[in-house]
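Why does this matter for the project? Reviewers at the last site visit asked to see concrete outputs rather than summary tables. In response, this paragraph embeds two records directly. Each consists of the residue sequence and, immediately after it, the corresponding structure tokens. Nothing has been edited or filtered.
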Amino acid sequence: MTATNYYGPDPNNHPDQKELSNIFRNLKPSTDSAFVLGCDGVLRNLTIDHNVLDAIGLPPRLIKAFLDRGPFDPRMEDMYRGVDGTKVPQEQCWKPDPSLLPLPLTAEEKARIKKENEEHKDIIQESIRKMESGELKPCGVAIRSNHDILSSS
């Protein structure tokens, strides 16, 4: 079964993908942060120093929707099977144990990201302005896999 068959001919119309896209749009934005799904099922917007700007616990169906936007990885299935981010205490959402997050960036990686953000600052700010004004529409969802995290196997 292909991922397109799972979500239908237009994954942008799938309710879980629509809901996930709305969550991304509503999380606090920043030009120097990234969305990270912790192994506890909490979607966080993290700065390069791993400070949490925003966080929301995802139910299993939205964790699956998140994973399906990336390439298939059986390790991700194992990691997220049975995980429900909606059951995570608020304290852990905002102050997660480092083991729940990706490895911290090296000083070199941080410097490279800061340099690239500075070099593209005007383009990034213009894109944000256009998105907020409705002049620029978000890209559609690309489904790249079909993770099976909702079953017990």
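We now turn to the second protein, recorded in exactly the same manner.
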Amino acid sequence: MRNLKRALAALFVLLLAAVVLFFVLENQQAVSLVMFGWTAPPLPVAVLVLVALVVGLAIGPLLGAYGMARGKRRIRASIRQAVSTKG
């Protein structure tokens, strides 16, 4: 059973790599982004999309961790307040 899971995981990774490779090969048109008067050098569309994906994958968990830490602080503060008002 473990070998089947490994084989399916390897197949999934290979399929994902093939899809990414196909996407990169199909989107080689160079585009230049302009923001606030600053013009980026022309890069293939695939590079820009993949960079945006990686940045989103990095920022998403950071924001989630921040939200969880903030929630935990609120819970601790409400517990402290409840304990101090009871006593």
